Amino acid sequence: MAFEVIESLSLPGDPAKPNDDAFAHRAGAAVVMDGATGLGESLMPGPSDAAWVARFGANRLMAHSAEGLNPHDAVAAALRDAENSFVHLRRRVPVETYETPFSSMMFVAQTASGFDALWFGDCAALVERPGGAVELVGDAIKKKARESDRVAALAATLGENAASTGVRDAFLPALRAARNTVNTERGGWLFGPDARGAEHVASARVPAPLGTFVLLVSDGFLALASDYDRYDVTSLMHAARAKGLPGLGEELREIEAGDSDGKRFPRFKKSDDATALLLKIV
């Protein structure tokens, strides 16, 4: 069995800024990465530190899976690679954790009866088996609900509209304080230059016969279901197959343009990077 790519889409939240999402695929594996928006000075070469960690992670995961490593070992090897590269390429040692680049991840790798899914953060996989219901793999919906509540509370406290083309300066202290807890038991774990993350990656073995569709998404694309209530996970999968990913991307941006200040749908940025990869098991 193998993953056949039906369609892919990756849209920057702001065309004038780097796309901090990344995706990659091969016959036996695929991944979507969502680099966490930088909250300070860039420490790495390239368009942004978030783009660096997302693209680096996606490339190394595909390379290690191609070497024949099992999925967990591929994640562990990619994390070690990221740690080593960060140490050697960074301009200086981070003073606080928020300066370190991190990424959410949904990584899938074929097994004899389906695939293994491994994830950090709020990327997700939607799975539709022939004749079956759509299943959501990952923690994205719960995490997105908590984030929306936090955005609304901060906006009310600070007396500011939440959404902007970038993160508003007024929100930076709270966001940096939260980012400083990443890769601790209090703050949860993300993909980054920290080999310890291999001990904390979430995973599931997913039965998936021939003909199963798998939609890998970053949270910016999943917002159509998790934030904007345009779809649920079932109708989002069906729309991806019927309308195509570009059509859903246009729909996503139209919703955000109609709520540019984030009053109806609280969020830190008017539009987030949005990535989706539609696969079929053949």
What topology emerges from the helices and strands here?
Elements (H helix, E strand, L loop, with lengths): L2 E9 L9 E6 L2 E7 L13 H18 L4 H19 L13 E9 L2 E7 L3 E5 L5 E4 L2 H19 L13 H8 L22 E6 L5 E5 L1 H8 L6 H11 L1 H13 L16 E8 L1
Helix pairs in contact: 1-2, 3-5, 6-7
Describe the protein in words:
The chain is an alpha+beta fold. It has a single domain, classed as PPM-type phosphatase domain (Phosphatase 2c, domain 1, 4-Layer Sandwich). It has helices at residues 49-66, 71-89, 140-158, 172-179, 219-226, 233-243, 245-257; strands at 3-11, 21-26, 29-35, 103-111, 114-120, 124-128, 134-137, 202-207, 213-217, 274-281. The strands form two sheets. It has a five-stranded antiparallel sheet with strand order 1-10-9-6-7. Strand 6 (124-128) and strand 7 (134-137) form a beta hairpin.
